[in-house]
Each structure stands twice: as structure tokens, then as C-alpha cells.
Amino acid sequence: MYSASTSTASFKPPPRSIFPPPPQKSPNHHLPHFSTTLTVPEKLNTLVTEFKSLSKPIDRVKRLLYYATILPEFDESGRVESNRVTGCTAQVWLNVAVDAHGLMRFHVDSDSEITKGFCYCLIWLLDGADPLDVVGVKVDDLGDMNVGVLPVRVSSRVNTWHNVLISMQRRTRELVVDRCGDCESFSLLQ
Questions:
Q1: Which of 12, 29, 91, 99 is least enclosed, having the fewest CB within 10 Å?
Q2: What residues does the Fe-S metabolism associated domain cover (predicted)?
């Protein structure tokens, strides 16, 4: 149960045994590159396992706060209205690009530390993925990563997962359709 003494205790990041080290800047691109050999479904399973292993809601929140500290820096020039993710309680900015290999690149920031932690997880999951894999992730796939401490807060946090993921997918669709025109296999997912 959440208590006042828990909230004032000094923050110690939980061990980071499952996720890879923070991303390095790609030499050919300004967006972060999360290099890994895992597929999106394998990464999703890793995320679910990570959060299911944390039985207490406060531990899941602490994990998100830790991930917020390793989210790559966001270029201030990206803080424009066209990069805003709507529907979140916090302010969230999202840059989306397609790299030279046709893979999706994401960069994100927020004014909320917990939201930054959510965003780190989504970036780790989808950065460097094929566009079809990005649009193939279902919002329900993220349900096991519920980090609500109090019931009133759960809905806004679920909305964050939902709104950022949906924005990543929408912008992926737009970029791919702009790049290749009427891509038959891709347009089926719209």
C-alpha cells in the first residue's frame, strides 16, 4: 500500500537487468538508435515480464522514474505544436522519421517524469522497427504494464500509453504513405 513514508524515501533506482543500456546517437541520424536483435514481439514480452516482476505499484512507478532519467535528450527545436501528442495530461512531444533503411525512428520528451518513463519504454519497443511492426502493436498489449498507484491516476496513465502509441502509429502511417504512395500491404493496416 502507498504511504507517506514511501513517497518521501530517497529514490534508489531498481536494478536494470532486462532492458539494454541507454541508446547511443546514430551517426547518420539525429534521432536515438536503440540497437538490439530482438523483434518487436520479443521486446513487448520483455516489457511485460519487466513490469509483471514488479508486484507493487510503487515499484513500477520507481522503474518508470528511472527510465525517465535515461531517455535521450530531446532537441528543443522539436517542441512545436505539430509534434505535440494530444490527449495526454502531461505535455508530450514526438518526432517521427523513416531512416534510409525504411525503419522507424522516434524521439520523444515530456514535462512529466512518469510520462518520460512510459515514453522510454515505447521508444525502446518501437525505435528501429519496421513500419508494419509499429502499426501492429495493439494498445491492449500494454495493459499488463499498469503502473497506477491510486485508482484515480490509472486512467490518465493508461491514456498516456494509448495516446503516445496511437500517435506513433498514426505518424508512421502518414510517413510511409507519403514516402511510397499507395503501398498496398501498408494501406491494409489503416
A1: 12
A2: 49-170
